């Protein structure tokens, strides 16, 4: 299973990163605007959003909108002593940031006052590959799956993906947690409409 996931991860990363950067930026804007116009984008409350890195769907538009329109913005970081993902609130995109272990922007240590998953209304999740049922292949460290095991009933999880990152089938393991919605440059996908009993791929 892990070898199969590693191969698929490599293939989808190659496909994603092969898209010209100008096209990725345009598609990212379309994806973010689709989410901002959608009914699941909350008028108030707390949004947790990843800070985009390399070829991921760029999230700066979402981060700015949350701060500019009175939402509480939480972002993830990796807690060094535990190697677990946590989230904390940020009130600026200009100050109090540092580069984490993987080169991803994270809150500076002095800003890291962790919040609980039950305090998050909408959680925006990155991924390398996705199915329409909301299952994903991430970067292989399991940070989001472990974080979302404590997900409360009221939290909505949404993945951001380019259409080229979608697959008809992916390996699914018992600990994998699907998102509720996927936003691509072409559509909003309600993952529940595609849900079925997951079956791991046979190597």
Output the keywords.
single chain; 203 residues; alpha/beta; Rossmann fold; 7-stranded mixed β-sheet; two-stranded antiparallel ribbon; 4 helices; 11 strands; 22% strand; disordered C terminus
Describe, in short, the structure shown:
It contains 4 helices and 11 strands, in the order ααβαβββββββαβββ. It is of the alpha/beta class and 203 residues long. The radius of gyration is 16 Å and the shape is globular.
Give the topology.
Blueprint: H1 2-17, H2 21-37, E1 46-49, H3 60-68, E2 72-79, E3 84-90, E4 97-99, E5 105-107, E6 122-125, E7 129-130, E8 136-137, H4 143-148, E9 156-160, E10 181-183, E11 188-190
Parallel strand pairs: 1-2, 1-6, 6-9, 9-10
Antiparallel strand pairs: 2-3, 4-5, 7-8, 10-11
Describe the model:
Helices cover 24% and strands 22% of the residues. It has helices spanning 2-17, 21-37, 60-68, 143-148; strands at residues 46-49, 72-79, 84-90, 97-99, 105-107, 122-125, 129-130, 136-137, 156-160, 181-183, 188-190. Helix 3 (60-68) links the parallel strand 1 and strand 2. The chain is built from 4 helices and 11 strands; from the N terminus they run H-H-E-H-E-E-E-E-E-E-E-H-E-E-E. The chain starts with a helix and ends in a 13-residue tail after the last strand. It has a single domain (2-194), classed as Rossmann fold (3-Layer(aba) Sandwich). The longest helix has 17 residues, at 21-37. With 203 residues, the chain is an alpha/beta fold. A 7-stranded mixed beta sheet has the order 3-2-1-6-9-10-11. Strands 4-5 form a two-stranded antiparallel sheet.
């Amino acid at each position: 299973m892990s070898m199969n996931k590693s191969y698929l991860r490599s293939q989808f990363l190659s496909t994603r990163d092969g898209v010209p950067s100008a096209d990725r930026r345009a598609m990212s804007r379309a994806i973010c605007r689709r989410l901002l116009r959608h009914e699941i984008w909350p008028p108030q409350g707390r949004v947790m959003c990843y800070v985009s890195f390399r070829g991921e769907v760029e999230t700066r538009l979402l981060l700015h909108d949350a701060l500019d329109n009175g939402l509480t913005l939480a972002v993830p970081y990796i807690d060094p002593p535990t190697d677990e993902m946590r989230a904390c609130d940020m009130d600026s995109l200009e100050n109090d940031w540092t580069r984490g272990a993987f080169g991803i922007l994270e809150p500076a240590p002095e800003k890291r006052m962790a919040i609980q998953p039950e305090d998050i209304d909408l959680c925006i999740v990155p991924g390398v590959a996705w199915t329409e049922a909301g299952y994903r292949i991430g970067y292989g460290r399991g940070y989001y799956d472990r974080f979302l095991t404590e997900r409360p009933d009221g939290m909505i999880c949404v993945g951001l993906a380019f259409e080229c990152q979608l697959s008809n089938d992916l390996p699914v393991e018992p600990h994998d947690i699907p998102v509720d919605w996927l936003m691509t440059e072409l559509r909003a996908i309600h993952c529940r409409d595609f849900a079925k009993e997951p079956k791991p791929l046979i190597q």
